[in-house]
């Protein structure tokens, strides 16, 4: 007996040697790349900085994951591989001076303003997100504690992955009761979305929402016999935080609560959960009414969102414009955009195939046994509710609603794909897809890293600017706001109306150099810009304050 046990143990050690070698060699190769590579942003982004060694290291890690899933005793190597893939998302942040995503400069301006004044400024129409300052308050607290300066903006992206990825794994592990399927599902979640999710209100809100969704599934569907009071208090806190962090995400959260309330009332009939759901809805309405209508600017924004219901088709014009640019493949940037588009279409297609497989199996069981699959009903309810209710409430949402919708329903698609892994053919196809798409996800993430304005670029791969430029001078309505907070000279910057341009023949507008560069990067064409001579000694820009950051926000007309 001892001889047999010893033989099995020896065999196991021998079987794990290739996995250990794969991981060790992969780590050596990626470190070699980082130490000896050029680590620059090229025409096709940062991807070329990896070289053969860096790309081969990813191959070894993928092999370690897939081989590690073959035996329960080797799952730990698959976990290590998943952690490696998550790490890969952050390595390019050392390729260029950070932060890269320009919108976070404005967020940092909000943070700086709160630290210096102790309050937000919702009365200033140029400070839209001051009305939902949750992320800025978090940044202010972190800045006071850590003293990291502008690099505080790197914390939230890391926290998102460190928290959301384990939550997704725990959720689908509980729903499927299959570890290997849960690992594959988590891997699909990681590679099905590209971008860094910078320090922005929507990023923090999505993190909070996913924590809430995990808790809802845990206490309502998984029925872990949890302390309802403890989790009820957590959900109430999350509801309040979401309301003043991000309006659209709070609407998604409201729809989620309603769907779980419907589930508890008509399907599983859980009175305790009904009480929690009703309480959460009441708190949501109270918080939302107080916060949304507490400031005049919020009321105006709310009216604007209602008006978007009428202007939905018009709001998609910019999407159609940049789709055509991406498909033309004029520049390297446009080619990468095209790749992003087809990558996202493929991810959605795979998800829908998985959904159809699960629905077909569920219908077969229903006709055979008469039993309803509660999980499938809940997922469909959430999917349909998000797709119909949210656009109806918030309208076009600046033309981004389809993209934001995809970002939120992604966890639903991941669950469907994981459930479909019971189908052997789909499982084999997904493994091959994950191998290929791991590279495509990295290319899509790094390809336009310097010039992307909205990192997902969402389902269509193109949200750079919604401005349809017509005149000789080009527009960014809130350029003064960017300059104002980047230079810490809040009291000296005047509104655009004070520039005495009333008599100008053309629509004289202020534009940051980044927008000019970005338009050229997309189209390969120079803009018809007439240089404006500086009419005063003052010109505000971010160069002195952020000397190590590649973006410049020049103001072409002096203040």
Blueprint of the fold:
Blueprint: H1 2-36, H2 51-68, H3 75-88, H4 103-117, H5 134-146, H6 155-176, H7 179-191, H8 201-221, H9 228-243, H10 247-266, H11 271-292, H12 296-308, H13 312-315, H14 317-328, H15 332-369, H16 374-394, H17 401-419, H18 424-447, H19 479-486, H20 513-523
How does this structure look, described?
The chain is an all-alpha fold and 559 residues long. The chain has three domains: 13-94, no CATH class; 103-447, no CATH class; 467-559, no CATH class. 64% of the residues lie in helices and 0% in strands. It has helices at residues 2-36, 51-68, 75-88, 103-117, 134-146, 155-176, 179-191, 201-221, 228-243, 247-266, 271-292, 296-308, 312-315, 317-328, 332-369, 374-394, 401-419, 424-447, 479-486, 513-523. α16 packs antiparallel against α17. The termini are far apart. The relative contact order is 0.10. Mean pLDDT is 70; it is low at 1-12, 124-128, 309-319, 451-515 and 529-559.
